[in-house]
């Protein structure tokens, strides 16, 4: 499986160096109530919990990492409606911070003891199966970004050589065909994520002791990871929107002016979709005067891909590390 390692720094990734305030290991854990309630309920349902905010609670082995995990979970729950490249980039950054806290949790002796119990082996193996599926989905997303980036760069090269309308049209068709293949692969990955959601819903259990609390914490992390990856995949594979303007002809422009503006703003925020739409328009019109506009859209798309790929790569490494740590705990 191809993996892209990009050296450029992301334009919108602004990771915070300050972690949520830690509590004393013996102190009572504070329940975090941040985040959108509807999205919180969704994540709680996926994680098989009934608590209104599904806090990570260790009644007998309280320590500061749990409050950090709670904080990052709530931040991600509050941003589940992310649909722009910048908001998804922030989600990926927050996911990295979340997995850093998970790594610290997995180094905690009582957490390791909880996961190593023989009677919990089946549940832990389910988590490992889930992490393997997440790695596969990440691989699909990385391949999709890499393929789109390569096609974008090739198309930019063709535009610079000014090969004429016919030569350009052939290259644009290749690009759009590649994008369709990307959407097909992502559609399969999204179905796999949906299956993971269903499995999480059917595997509920209590977190009345530290063993279940550790596993429940990891389930919540898995649930919110699924949601972030769904947002990322949906952004990359945004369906073609050639027929969108026709529906507005049925209603008054005056009555729906604000709604049109909102949709236009959302479309402008998806650099990949904008590049696709601009290329389709160029092919239909055959007007080479729009080449400069096409070049700008392709440049924006390439920068967007680079940023998303870098954030995804960083998260991918942390996901691998978490999986290896759990495997080592089981094999000790």
Automatic annotation (TrEMBL):
GO terms for biological process: root development; shoot system development. Residues 255-282 form a coiled coil. Keywords: Coiled coil. The keyword Coiled coil applies. InterPro entries: BPS1_pln. Residues 1-24 have a biased composition (Polar residues). Signal peptide: none annotated. Residues 1-35 are annotated as: Disordered. Pfam families: BPS1. It comes from the Eukaryota. This is Uncharacterized protein. It comes from Hibiscus trionum. The lineage of its organism: Eukaryota, Viridiplantae, Streptophyta, Embryophyta, Tracheophyta.
